[in-house]
Amino acid sequence: MSGKYEAVIGLEVHVELNTKSKIFCSCPTEFGKEPNTQVCPVCLGLPGVLPVLNEEAVRKAVQAALALNCEITSYAKFDRKNYFYPDLPKAYQISQYDLPLARNGWIELSGGKRIGIRRVHLEEDAGKLVHQGDITSAAFSFADYNRCGVPLIEIVSEPDIRDPEEARDYLTRLKGILQHIGVSDCRMEEGSLRVDANVSVRPVGSREFGTRTELKNIGSFRAVYRGLSYEIERQSKLLDRGEPVIQETRHWDEQNGVTRSLRGKEEAQDYRYFPEPDLVPLQLDPDWVEEIRRTLPELPEARKARFVREYGLPEYDADVLVSSPPIANFYEECVRLFGEPKTVSNWVMGELFRLLNDSGMEPEELKLRPSELVSLLKMTREGVVSGKIAKDVFEQMFRTGEDPESIVKKHNLVQISDKSALEPLVLQVIAENPKVVDDYKSGKKQAFAFLVGQVMKATKGRANPAVVNELLHKRLD
Ligand code: ADP
Ligand code: MG
Ligand code: ZN
Predict the structure, then answer these.
(1) How close is the Cα of 299 to the center of ligand 1, in Å?
(2) Which residues fall within 8 angstroms of residue 231, CB to CB, at 6 or more apart?
(3) Which of 7, 112, 290, 336 has the maximal Cβ count within 10 Å?
(4) Same domain? 277 vs 330
(5) Which residue blocks in 71-212 are alpha helix, DSSP H?
(6) pLDDT score of 2
(7) Which of 171, 198, 202 most suits a substitution to test ligand 1, by most atoms within 8 Å of the C-beta?
(8) How far, in Å, CA of 297 to CA of 416, rounded?
(9) Are both 199 and 334 inside the same structural domain?
(10) pLDDT in tens, 202-230
(11) What is the 271 CA–ligand 1 centroid distance (Å)?
């Protein structure tokens, strides 16, 4: 975008609640089972059956809505959203239309900006189609109905998001909040968190919204970021050429880095919504809701404040660490075992995040145990390995799962602190670099660092820098 246009983004996020059984029947919800083994007449929509609402699903939805600062409505109802698709054997989805469970919430982003949450409603998931090949050109597809009737919440944001970076920030925080309260594992790769992104552009300064497109079911937060960036660029170019943006649903093609038209955008009237006749309206007891509010687990904001207070961390560190419960838990356990909260924070935010990023791993997939990092930190504190070597060892621990002691032993990485071993190297470096030595003696302080570096290099990073410093000073000063 050339600065001429501004993007407007609103996100619809579907999250599967981790209840044991489905929302309207007692079938299990477990992921990854043999297709069509977790189904019954209710979730298959056979004639003559009646749905029974799962209280646990309502409780978790209320927990989520409260954690997202929403108002819980005193009178909500379920509606039928009618459409035919092979993953929906009933040909309607039980959802909530005009009277959702909750409204008017918000999520606060890094800089303090609040993104409004228009509504949170409860609905049932559809089945899953497994396409033979690419979705746009599949020869045939298989239907797995195990997912039919798994409870979902849909979280609809206001169109308050202004760029892909804010979208990613919003999603990261949303996921962190839901994971902290434990209502979902939010695994995008297993489809338990799914994002539809609505995006339009408008000339900077304009107050009206442009025509939007909707990117469906994107596979990762990174893909949301890339898909939105692509779409903003595409729409801006259309406007530049004076061509209209067509309101439609588009598919993000991750491999080719483009969006493609999937279908025209459906309107609410296309769904023939009407009140679900088989379920009574949802009138939640305010005392029950208050009880849930009072017993909400610690949310990321509160945990962040506690990290600052308890561990003396800078706000920035605390904010990054609490963004994901697996990371925050890992961090706290390391500090419990090792102390030195800031040292641990530097390792987690520096080395661990870098390795996670490079490997494309999600924090919840982390196999490294806190005790293993702590062993390495102790070896560093005791001078067994140098700080630089410790980083290499950590990388190997991360990749191979081996413990630090055996890595250090196997590759002979123990730090050399013995003066008699280092002395000859120091003398050699001094002899080989007469000009640098002169520079140092005539007052160039950087020359000293170069000499230290040469000794480090000669020992492949294993020399104890403090000892090398001491020996060099003794010879040169
Ligand atoms: P639908 O349910 O038909 O997709 P909604 O009006 O409920 O439509 O909006 C869905 C999402 O689209 C919301 O997150 C909203 O913020 C966002 N949205 C609505 N209009 C626009 C627009 N012009 N540009 C970008 N996002 C929009
Ligand atoms: Mg939509
Ligand atoms: Zn069932």
Answers:
(1) 28
(2) 197, 199, 213, 215, 250, 259
(3) 7
(4) no
(5) 164-181
(6) 54
(7) 198
(8) 48
(9) no
(10) 999 999 999 999 998 788 999 999 999 99
(11) 16
Element (H, E) at 447: helix 446-458
Q: What is the mean pLDDT of residues 176-195?
A: 93
What does the pLDDT look like over 60-88, one tens digit per residue? Answer: 999 999 999 999 999 999 999 999 999 99
In the reported structure, the alpha carbon of residue 214 is separated from the centroid of ligand 2 by a whole-number distance in angstroms of 7
Q: Are residues 61 and 205 located together in one domain of the fold?
A: yes
Domain that holds residue 363: 295-410
In 114-212, DSSP assigns E strands to 114-124, 128-131, 141-144, 151-157, 193-203
Domain stop point among 227, 257, 291: 291
| Ion ligand 3, residues whose Cβ is below 5 A away | 25, 27, 40, 42-43
At position 414, the amino acid (one-letter code) is V
Same domain, 283 and 347: no
What mean pLDDT value characterizes the chain?
93
Is 434 found in the same domain as 287? no
The pLDDT of residue 287 is 96
Res 59: pLDDT: 98
The enclosing domain of 430 has a CATH number of 1.10.10.410
Q: Are residues 329 and 378 in the same domain?
A: yes
pLDDT tens per residue, range 334-370 = 999 999 999 999 999 999 999 998 988 888 888 899 9
Q: How far is the CA of 354 from the centre of ligand 1 (A)?
A: 35
Q: Which one of 384, 410, 436 terminates a domain?
A: 410
Same domain, 215 and 346: no
pLDDT more than 70, % of the chain: 99
Protein residues whose CB sits closer than 6 Å to any atom of ligand 1: 8-12, 156-159, 198-200, 209, 212
**Structural domains of the chain, count:** 3
DSSP-derived letter for residue 369 is -
Q: Which two tokens stand for residue 358?
A: 């490079």
